[in-house]
């Protein structure tokens, strides 16, 4: 990784290159990169950016699987029947579903942006001015979450199928905190302490995430005085409808090997964490690592079994074809799939080092996945710096367009899966609203807390925001367009009876409207930070 950190120019020179006033002398690995033409360099760096997004998608799939094992963990509860004086053994989930949605699910889908912003802050440590990639990416990611992902989720259900939010109270709590996050960000940027962030403002930003968790849990449990008097309606016992699992009890190890092939054709249904019996529906059961292993054995798996699974991960990573793809009669589709697997092979081999998911209830794989995601996020920041340096494009523009879209891919996949498979719209929409809250309270709050703490100790100075005006303008545009988005969702609820699905024509009209809102945000924000308007 040391070679990725090579820099040949001081910050002042880099800034001049970003504005296009001189030749960019920075390079990624090899010094001869500077002798290439600018157009070729931009193309190569964009290809590198795209390849990192492919890797990010691959490791995020593993991250979801490990998160699934963490959340579905149950604990044994022994009670004494007062009438018969006999022991009653039951298993209850360790994680509350609402808290899991807001913490692990939203945090997991937002972790690429969070790690990128944190790395950007650490790179700029000691600088009185905050880095621009983090805030720009997170605000752009919020817009991508709210508009394109909603647009996809609306049209995903089958024609005529309606999916509505069953727990409207929890959604309203999440929505209010999401809107407040961006109002709060505007207040501290433009009203309270204009264009600077103090240590206390950064600390308050992070603490509000804890308040969100507490308020959402209170609403879920219907605490008096702390929750809205709204009852749940039609909330199914199992949020994900059961399917025929491919796993069989006779040979769990063999079935786990078989399921590794399924990783090549779909991403695990992470929303099986809402399945109350602790079993994972769908064809990804085995790869979730221990669907056939009793809950009490999870985390205590025998070493030979674990080593076999781990070995099989490397075998699967080097396999370009599955048994299913070999049956493909269309030579063109089969060739395209082979090319795709060949492109992904280096990432798959690297991520095979992530431990199997049935170790320590998935926590070890969870942590290792976070480490890999952080590494990719660091490389993304280098590519973004180089593209900005060579092309002269404002880094904010790259941040809330290319970076925001690429790092928000896990959010899109997660919400799409929920809209397809769940009987309600709760998790599909909750993932969007909660991810937006996490983006501000954690994704911007933590990096700013790191920078303000250092500046306070070293200089007794606050953190200055270089392009606070552009960021504030983006927040205003986002807030205005997001109000329009929520109004449409409420209108659909009142007229069609559900937020997602419905008649095909109206679903596509809603989809197009949401995409137009996103284009408005991107165009206006880009023009503002480029000083065109």
Automatic annotation (TrEMBL):
Origin superkingdom: Eukaryota
Record key words, sorted: Ion transport, Membrane, Transmembrane, Transmembrane helix, Transport
Cellular location(s): Endomembrane system
Lipid bilayer topology: Multi-pass membrane protein
Main location: membrane
CC per GO annotation: endomembrane system; membrane
InterPro entries: CaCA, NaCa_Exmemb, NCX_ion-bd_dom_sf
Protein name: Magnesium/proton exchanger isoform X2
GO biological process, one term: metal ion transport
Domain (Sodium/calcium exchanger membrane region) ranges: 45-216, 361-525
Organism: Cucumis melo var. makuwa (Oriental melon)
Pfam families: Na_Ca_ex
Segments traversing the membrane: 42-64, 168-187, 199-218, 360-379, 386-406, 471-494, 506-527
